[in-house]
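Give me the 3D structure for Ribulose-phosphate 3-epimerase.
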Amino acid sequence: MADYMIAPSILSADFARLGEEVDNVLKSGTDIVHFDVMDNHYVPNLTIGPLVCEALRKHGVTAPIDVHLMVKPVDRIVPDFAAAGATYITFHPEASDHVDRTLQLIKAEGCKAGLVFNPATPLDYLKYVIDKVDMILLMSVNPGFGGQSFIPSALDKLREARKLIDASGRDIRLEIDGGVKVDNIREIAAAGADTFVSGSGIFGKGQDSDPNRYDGIVKQMRDELAKA
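Predicted structure for Ribulose-phosphate 3-epimerase (228 residues):
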């Protein structure tokens, strides 16, 4: 599978110059802007909302924006992110009272829809809604904070999710988020992932004024993926 996509998580970027950071990381060869939305309710942290997504679009960002909602309830905020320019909207099934309805809502707003599974959340929901899913995001850390270490059991879960996707015959992206770095991205790809969220693994490299500072780390990730 050659269609690998790297999704830098802007949670680890320099927010004082976010537009420039996103421009530079996309120029380095990444594919999707990953957008971590935390509400200090579903997860113990508070981050960014639709206004920041809209600001990136107004800045000129045309790449897909992958909005990961770590919020509860979900439905109220979905139309706001759709209007702000989100491409994908993913959410945690535990945070929605009606998972099927939330997936339908995201689609009705013109976005691609996805489910996010925490490390201890089983994939059972997919038995009933895989026909409405464009992306499956597996958390390889517990959600709420950046900079955590990869949880190895996520590899078995990736293999399980890949089997479900392949059996469905549908075009569904399999994304991984948490502790993805150069030294483990090949193993993660081999387990079935095709979309790789990396925050500190990318933005933690070379925080200076060089507009090409992310080229090296992204190339290293691409080189590892080429060997998967």
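The chain has one domain: 5-226. Let me know if you want a second pass.
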